[in-house]
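Support reply, case 0932

Customer input (verbatim):
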Amino acid sequence: MRKLCLLVALVSPWASAQVLQVESHSLMRLPNTTSTLTLERLDVADYGTLLVPSNVTELSVGQLHLGREARIAIVPAQQALDVKVVQAELAEGSQITSRGAQGTYTKAARPGRDLNLRFNALTAPQLSVDARGGAGAPGYVGLDGANGQAPGCTWGAAGRGADGSNGSDGLPGAAGARVRLELPSAYPAEQIKVTVDGGAGGAPGPGGKPGHGGKAKGCLVYTADGGKSGRPGAEGQPGPAGAAGVVTVQRF
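Our regenerated output:
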């Protein structure tokens, strides 16, 4: 029986982990094998980062300590994350981030993840939460125009360069998150900083370059003039910013 317990502990150390420590200047990721995690103590040292995966929906901590510039970084997900802390001590510059992901050419920007945060007791110079939406992807670059055909000594003038195509518009930014805070009534309101801005719209796509006209050519009897260059494509429009999120603070 003792060997079996030891085997379980070695195979699944997170299942029985009650105290978790993230070393300074290091990154640790919580396991993604369960949606609910309970820790007696969580200590993230100075400049350390704890990553919370998208499938975790409930995190309960007895004692939480975030060192200077320490981070709890939450991966974007559709389902909200509930965090309950009995006693928290947060150092200067520490932060909980739940930002959305920036958009790409193949994926739309993702909104900040909704959060429900409860601190039964809180000691911190500032409670900082960043739950902004992801920025939109930039627009596509317009295609360059083709170059004009060079003239010949036995046929007409050089060809005109083709126009560049227009760049596309930037894609929309994603919405900020909905953040609900449950805090002791004694914690000062001026020390609460929650950012839920929508993500910036994507940059406009540049227009395509114009094609060059066919080059002039000297012939035995006459000189063939070069062709005119095309026009550059127009730049697209910036994408719209995402909608701002909502912050709710409840005191007890």
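We compared this against your earlier run and they match. Two observations from our side: The chain has one helix and 15 strands. The radius of gyration is 29 Å. Please reopen the case if you see a mismatch on your end.
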